[in-house]
Amino acid sequence: MRILSGLQPSGRLHIGNYFGMMEAALKLQHEGDAYYFIADYHSLNTVQDGKLLRDHVRNLAIDFLACGLDPAKSVFFRQSDLPEHAELSWILSTVTPMGLLERCHSYKDKVAHGIKPSHGLFAYPVLMAADILIYDSDVVPVGRDQKQHVEVTRDIAIKMNETFGEGLFKLPMPRINEQTAVVPGLDGQKMSKSYDNTIQLFEELPALKKKIMGIKTDSTPVESPKSIEGSSILALYKLVASQADYDTMVADHEKGGVGYGDFKKRLLQAMTEHFAPFRERRAEIIADPKYVDRVLAEGAEKARAVARKTLARVRDAVGLG
Ligand code: TYM
């Protein structure tokens, strides 16, 4: 089984990325042939500052390794080290119906949140299809917001197979963990950089404290029962606390007598404890500045061997070169 997924280096990773995608991806690296990459071609749509993009790429690599990505098990690379993705994207774009891309929610959503509507942003799902298809991927672990893009990938693969020969591409499947498919942000909406409601994976403690203690709550008095529905404190606590601690917090909501300040403190503590081992590992990775470069260079080499083979097969089928 070939597993593949990517993350955009458009800022620091947040816990929506972790629970929506990385946690599953880390488990899957022990179950198959995993390819994970940093989607820097994609991020050019929103990060148009060379130095900043490089910093984001480096931080993302460090953070993913700190969370447990094992370069001996997974091929970990930077997308732009593989221009083969961009070439395949062009080939796929020639069979991609406009209507397929016009239906994509993510494009409309991003434009509605102030990202400028460029051709790159519109054509983004085609590049994502190339990322997936060039490795003959079977399974793509993602959060719910990427599901439609994997479906578009399947539609493009079907179109290519109909046009240039059955069997040219495998049809990949999204793998979504329903429990964590949409991790809420501090304000209860989906956690997302564009909504400015994120908790970063490696948030410094004072900033983390400020964010958690600042979660907006209703004015139910301390002694009264509190609503469980739609509480972002509870939803976030569920991700980082043990089942027993989570059940206690639910019971305390139902009973009344505990204030929101107390719930927030419990959330802060559980969040800090949950990610503590990752922080330690992160410090070790940073202490060896060459390590990340080495991992990405080796990853690119392994990825290239597969990507070149697929691209040669596709060029041959469509009549290029
Ligand atoms: P990106 O960088 O926006 O997000 C990376 C992963 O995190 C998931 N995610 C979430 N999951 C649950 N709740 C949330 N609040 C949340 N926020 C983000 C995303 O669903 C994603 O799985 N287009 C992709 C990157 C990409 C890619 C690919 C992914 C490029 N090529 C090929 C898979 C296969 C993106 O922008 O993800």
How is this structure best described in words?
The chain is mainly α and 321 residues long. The chain contains 13 helices and five strands. The chain folds into two domains: 2-182 and 289-318, HUPs (Rossmann fold); 203-283, Tyrosyl-Transfer RNA Synthetase, CATH 1.10.240.10. Helix content is 56%, strand content 7%. It starts with a strand and ends with a helix. The structure holds tryptophanyl-5'AMP (TYM). Tryptophanyl-5'AMP is lined by residues 4-8, 16-17, 20-21, 39, 42, 128, 131-132, 140, 142-143, 145-146, 149, 181-183, 190-192.
List the helices and strands and how they pair.
Elements: E1 2-7, H1 15-28, E2 33-38, H2 40-43, H3 50-66, E3 74-78, H4 84-93, H5 98-102, H6 105-112, H7 119-133, E4 139-141, H8 147-164, E5 173-175, H9 205-213, H10 232-240, H11 243-255, H12 260-287, H13 289-318
Parallel strand pairs: 1-2, 2-3, 4-5
Helix pairs in contact: 3-12, 4-7, 4-13, 7-8, 9-12, 10-12
The site of tryptophanyl-5'AMP has 26 residues, from strand 1, helix 1 and helix 7.
Pfam family, one: tRNA-synt_1b
Motif ('HIGH' region): 9-17
Family: Belongs to the class-I aminoacyl-tRNA synthetase family.
